[in-house]
Amino acid sequence: MDGLMRRRLLAGEVHVWCSEPSELERNGLVASAQALLSSDEHERMRRFRFEGDRLTFLATRVLVRQVLSRYEPIAPRDWTFVATSHGRPEIARPSSALRFNVSNTSGLVVLAVTHRLTVGVDVESLSRPAPIEVADRFFAPAEARVLQSLPPSERTRCFFEFWTLKESYSKARGLGLAIPLDRFWFTLEPCRRPRLEIDPLLSDEAEAWHFAQLRPTTEHVIAVCVRRSGETDGDITLGWHRFG
Predict the structure, then answer these.
(1) CA distance readout (Å), 14 to 17, 19, 198
(2) What HEC string does the chain produce?
(3) Where does the record place the 4'-phosphopantetheinyl transferase domain (predicted)?
(4) C-alpha–C-alpha distance, residues 60 and 194, integer Å
(5) Residue of 101, 117, 153, 191 with fewest CB within 10 Å of its CB?
């Protein structure tokens, strides 16, 4: 934990941390980062075929370990994790009130951390083509209509705004893509938070969730979904973690 500035989470807050996987190579930190992984994480990393994917996996796991150690007096190497039946990682040991969720895309890894609150996060790169046909087949009709109404130059940004919001909600629910994407939908309005609507068949209340959209770089969009803890929403703040 040496060199990591301690942080404190207030009730209702979400801290979102970003890192660039390439920093590990640029600063000669790959070997020291690998030393933090568990044997299971080493095995999972070896399964990736491409070096870039292995580096992204390594950066994601080290981001989780080092950032959690900003909030608890635990060495990054000492955290252990367990995956739910839908693949959501959670803290196994030591016992902690921290809750987290992770995501990665080309050039960026992201971690959202809360105190006891359920959270989901997703990040996408705007530099890759948007599969608009996915919206036509799987998004709610209202979202697909919005995309089709836009000029082609604006569709990529809007698609990934919808996609990251949907992913963040699905991940917060702990079900991933087991939730049909056309059974919940978002309304996006300038200068206002995204508004969620949910089909009654999903047995959930839209008012129970708080959303935010963040732009850590000009090429990336992040969506955060957190379960509300009271009448007022806590702050969702964005920061950068430098590997060390």
Answers:
(1) 10, 17, 23
(2) CCCCCCCCCCCCCEEEEEECCHHHHHCCCHHHHHCCCCHHHHHHHHCCCCHHHHHHHHHHHHHHHHHHHHHCCCCHHHCEEEECCCCCEEEEECCCCEEEEEEEECCEEEEEEEECCCEEEEEEECCCCCCHHHHHHHCCHHHHHHHHHCCHHHHHHHHHHHHHHHHHHHHHHCCHHHCCHHHEEEECCCCCCCEEEECHHHCCCHHHEEEEEEEEECCEEEEEEEECCCCCCCCEEEEECCCC
(3) 119-225
(4) 27
(5) 191
Q: Which residues of the chain have pLDDT under 70?
A: 1-5, 231-232
Tens of pLDDT, residues 64-100: 999 999 999 999 999 999 988 888 889 999 999 999 9
What the block records as the tokens of 5 is 């500035």
Domains in the chain (CATH in brackets) are: 14-240 (3.90.470.20)
> Helices 51-71 and 39-46 meet at what angle, rounded to 10?
150
